[in-house]
């Protein structure tokens, strides 16, 4: 281990100098952490920014976006993932209709309008990336959200009955503001999209919006691959 | 003793120690609650106390309430002693304490209300993020002000780890939280999709590195040698493992995104650096262990030292498990399962928690100038906490591996063996119940400590006398 000792001698020779200079030490520490940070963030920024949206992927409409906000507010992403990994067993489970051809896993282009991404990190309940293709019934989703045990006995999901109560009626001004904000970060909402908010959400509850969002998940890409087939 | 007290500002250390106790109770109580929600869904009390809203409250209170309080308490305590000057500005220190606790209180209110950016460990909405930036800047100015006016020329190794944390945390925090506000309570990340995920896990993994690891290594490097009155085993090992640790850690984020559409080369980089990280991590563990062995006969009697020993052991275990889980094929099985929850809690309950408790048992008698009310209760805390951790992580290991295996099980026709999701949930129920019990035991330990601390503080000013329990026991027997 003689070479290792020499390496240590050489290295500690100059780090020991820094240990007496607060500014120098802090500066070199910053450099040490910036190298990896820059490598990890800068090249992918250009690569993923230029990643083509999959043709057919459309931004969320007003009702779906309102639903996505509810999904975030209720922290659904703490238990449900939105990321089908490229394994047979995962594709079989989360793409039972083979709506996405033989490559039924998640692709970068599906997420280009997602601010923020909602992939999650824990799958206590099933993955929802392609939920519209697994459970297309709005009525089922409503029943499930009001009391999950009614559709899946033994489920440990919380009940969300208040989402469908009258007090949970959506506010169109908020949603229009949210769309304007998202336009600033690059989601291509047109003026017509924003003007149409009121008609799309009028009289709808937060629960309706959440169901609309769930039925949007995976819809665009599934339709695209059906057309291609 | 009195001239000593005047030289250093220990009031700020007291403030943060008490914050730690309060946020410790809050975070762990919510933790136990949500653990049982995983078994009994009727414990979800809507709309404010469902799992989806309480889980961010649990993680934020644990990381930013409990762990950060310990970090600031030990940070203020050590920097004054290691620089041999009083903290640069008492006023800034107090302002830091007040604004910090205000933030955590607001977090505890807004998270159950559902105000969330939905980024893990960065859920707080933008007005709170700005508040955090304000007090963190105040803190950093004060901390570096102390370092730059120091009387001790050499920066001791504990300070390196604290400095690295103060430098890195703001960078991670600000970049990941860049967002466009659309109202006072709602904002959208400026990043989208895959890139947002990349930023988030660069932040998320390095929150583990620079909030939950480096400050606690700093803590270890100060309190461990101080407590056993022996120097750290190797200064050169400190040098090599410090620089390699902070350099390598920052690259490891993408191992959270294996098998996602993140570019492959980036996934591989993350995986390779995660495996490399094993060595500097164990460098720190070994330095701790080898220092401990210089006082190994003390371990039998001294609860504080036992906690440090278990803390360092769990640090070694978690930093072995981490690189293991970052290997693609292992991630394929473990990702998204309870195994990850077990892994995280091995680190937080075992390493962060135990080192925090050790620091509290070390600091409280000295700062309040009295002796600990009961060594026996401290010992009880140690055992009940250790048992709790073991029950927690073993049940999560079993649950996670069962979960991952059931997801991927395929019968002889090539069809899924367990297509019904609830069937898997039902299978995991007993393990999740044991997890809740493990967590509850850990919580009992915490409450015991708080009782012990309150009784200790009541006798404040009685004078601190260090007792060597080995001698104490012999004397007791002789009498």
Automatic annotation (TrEMBL), chain A:
Give the EC number.
1.9.3.1
* Origin: domain of life: Bacteria
GO MF terms listed in the record are: electron transfer activity; heme binding; metal ion binding; oxidoreductase activity
Alphabetized PROSITE patterns for the sequence? CYTC
Which InterPro entries does this one have?
Cyt_c-like_dom, Cyt_c-like_dom_sf, Cyt_c_oxidase_monohaem-su/FixO
Keyword Transcription belongs to the record = no
Q: Per the database record, which ranges form the Cytochrome c domain?
A: 62-205
SUPFAM superfamilies from the entry? Cytochrome c
User: What are the protein's UniProt keywords?
Assistant: Heme, Iron, Metal-binding, Oxidoreductase
Would you tell me the protein name for this molecule? Cytochrome-c oxidase, cbb3-type subunit II
- Naturally occurring in which organism (per UniProt): Leptospira langatensis
TrEMBL record, chain B:
Return the PROSITE patterns for the record. COX1, COX1_CUB
Q: Where do transmembrane segments lie in this chain? A: 12-36, 56-76, 97-114, 126-145, 157-180, 200-224, 236-252, 272-292, 304-320, 340-364, 376-398, 433-454
Where the record annotates domain Cytochrome oxidase subunit I profile, the positions are 16-479
Q: Which domain of life is it from?
A: Bacteria
Q: Per the UniProt entry, what is one GO biological process? A: aerobic respiration
Q: Please provide, in alphabetical order, the Gene Ontology terms of the cellular component aspect for this entry.
A: plasma membrane
So which cofactors does this thing need? Cu(2+); heme; heme b
| Binding residue positions for heme b 1; low-spin | 58, 345
Question: Which amino acid positions bind heme b 2; high-spin, per UniProt?
Answer: 343
Cross-referenced Pfam families:
COX1
- Pathway in which the depicted protein is active: Energy metabolism; oxidative phosphorylation
What is the membrane topology noted in the UniProt record heading this document? Answer: Multi-pass membrane protein
Keyword vocabulary terms for this entry? Cell membrane, Copper, Electron transport, Heme, Iron, Membrane, Metal-binding, Oxidoreductase, Respiratory chain, Translocase, Transmembrane, Transmembrane helix, Transport
User: Where is the protein localized?
Assistant: Cell membrane
The UniProt annotation places Cu cation binding at 205, 255-256
EC nos: 7.1.1.9
Record GO terms (molecular function): cytochrome-c oxidase activity; heme binding; metal ion binding; oxidoreductase activity
Annotated cofactor note: Binds 1 copper ion per subunit, denoted as copper B. Binds 2 heme groups per subunit, denoted as high- and low-spin.
Reaction equation(s) it catalyzes: 4 Fe(II)-[cytochrome c] + O2 + 8 H(+)(in) = 4 Fe(III)-[cytochrome c] + 2 H2O + 4 H(+)(out)
Which EC class heads this enzyme's classification?
A: translocase
The UniProt similarity line reads: Belongs to the heme-copper respiratory oxidase family.
Task: Write the protein's name.
Answer: cytochrome-c oxidase
What organism does the record attribute this protein to?
Leptospira langatensis
Gene symbol here is: ccoN
């Amino acid at each position: 281990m003689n070479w290792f000792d020499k390496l240590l001698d050489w290295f500690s020779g100059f780090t020991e100098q820094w240990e007496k200079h607060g500014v120098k030490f802090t500066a070199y520490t910053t450099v040490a952490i910036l190298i990896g940070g820059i490598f990890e963030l800068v090249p992918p920024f250009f690569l993923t920014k230029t990643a083509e949206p999959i043709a057919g992927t459309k931004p969320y409409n007003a009702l779906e976006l309102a639903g996505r906000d509810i999904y975030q507010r209720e922290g659904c992403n703490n238990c449900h993932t939105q990321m089908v990994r490229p394994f047979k067993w995962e594709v079989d489970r989360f793409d039972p209709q083979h709506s996405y051809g033989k490559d039924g896993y998640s692709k970068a282009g599906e997420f280009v309008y997602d601010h923020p991404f909602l992939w999650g990190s824990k799958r206590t309940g099933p993955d929802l990336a392609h939920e519209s293709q697994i459970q297309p019934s709005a009525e089922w989703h409503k029943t499930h959200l009001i009391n999950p045990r009614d559709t899946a006995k033994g489920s440990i999901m919380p009940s969300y009955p208040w989402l469908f109560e009258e007090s949970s009626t959506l506010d169109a001004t908020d949603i229009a503001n949210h769309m304007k904000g998202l336009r600033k970060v690059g989601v291509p909402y047109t003026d017509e999209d924003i003007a149409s908010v009121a008609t799309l959400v009028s009289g709808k509850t937060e629960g309706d919006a959440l169901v609309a969002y769930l039925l949007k998940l995976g819809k665009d890409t599934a339709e695209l691959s059906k057309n291609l087939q | 003793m009195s001239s000593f007290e005047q030289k250093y500002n220990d009031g700020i250390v007291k403030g943060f120690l008490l914050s730690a106790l309060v946020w410790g109770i809050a975070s762990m109580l919510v933790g136990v609650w949500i653990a049982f929600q995983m078994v009994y869904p009727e414990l979800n009390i809507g709309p404010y106390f469902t799992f989806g809203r309480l889980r961010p409250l649990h993680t934020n209170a644990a990381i930013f309430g409990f762990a950060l309080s310990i970090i600031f308490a030990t940070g203020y305590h050590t920097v004054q002693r290691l620089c041999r000057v009083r903290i640069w500005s008492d006023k800034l220190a107090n302002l830091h304490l007040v604004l910090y606790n205000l933030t955590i209180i607001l977090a505890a209110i807004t998270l159950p209300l559902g105000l969330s950016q939905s980024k893990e460990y960065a859920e707080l909405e933008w007005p709170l993020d700005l508040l955090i930036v304000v007090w963190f800047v105040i803190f950093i100015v004060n901390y570096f002000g102390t370092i730059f006016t120091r009387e001790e020329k050499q920066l001791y190794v504990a300070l390196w780890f604290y400095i690295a944390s103060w430098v890195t945390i703001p960078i991670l925090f600000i970049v990941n939280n860049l967002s466009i506000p659309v109202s006072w309570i709602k904002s959208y990340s400026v990043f989208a999709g895959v890139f947002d995920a990349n930023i988030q896990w660069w932040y998320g993994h390095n929150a583990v590195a620079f909030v939950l690891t480096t400050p606690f290594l700093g803590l270890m490097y100060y309190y461990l040698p101080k407590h056993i009155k022996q120097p750290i085993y190797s200064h050169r090992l400190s040098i090599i493992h410090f620089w390699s640790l902070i350099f390598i850690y920052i690259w490891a984020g993408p191992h959270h995104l294996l098998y996602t559409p993140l570019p492959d080369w980036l996934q591989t980089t993350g995986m390779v650096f995660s495996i490399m990280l094993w060595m500097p991590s164990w460098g720190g563990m070994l330095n701790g262990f080898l220092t401990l062995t210089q006082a190994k006969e003390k371990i039998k009697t001294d609860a504080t030292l036992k906690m440090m020993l278990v803390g360092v052991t769990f640090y070694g275990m978690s930093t072995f498990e981490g690189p293991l889980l970052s290997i693609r094929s292992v991630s394929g099985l473990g990702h998204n399962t309870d195994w990850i929850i077990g892994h995280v809690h091995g680190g937080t309950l075992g390493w962060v928690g135990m080192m925090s408790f050790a620091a509290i048992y070390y600091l409280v008698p000295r700062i309040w100038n009295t002796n600990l009310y009961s060594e026996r209760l401290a010992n009880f805390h140690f055992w009940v906490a250790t048992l709790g951790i073991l029950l927690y992580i073993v049940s999560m290991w079993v649950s996670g591996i069962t979960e991952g295996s059931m997801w991927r099980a395929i019968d002889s026709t090539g069809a899924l063996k367990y297509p019904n999701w609830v069937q898997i949930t039902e299978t995991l129920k007993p393990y999740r119940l044991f997890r809740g019990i493990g967590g509850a035991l850990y919580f009992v330990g915490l409450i015991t400590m708080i009782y012990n601390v309150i009784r200790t503080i009541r006798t404040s000013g009685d004078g601190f006398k260090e007792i060597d329990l080995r001698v104490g026991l012999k004397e007791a027997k002789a009498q």
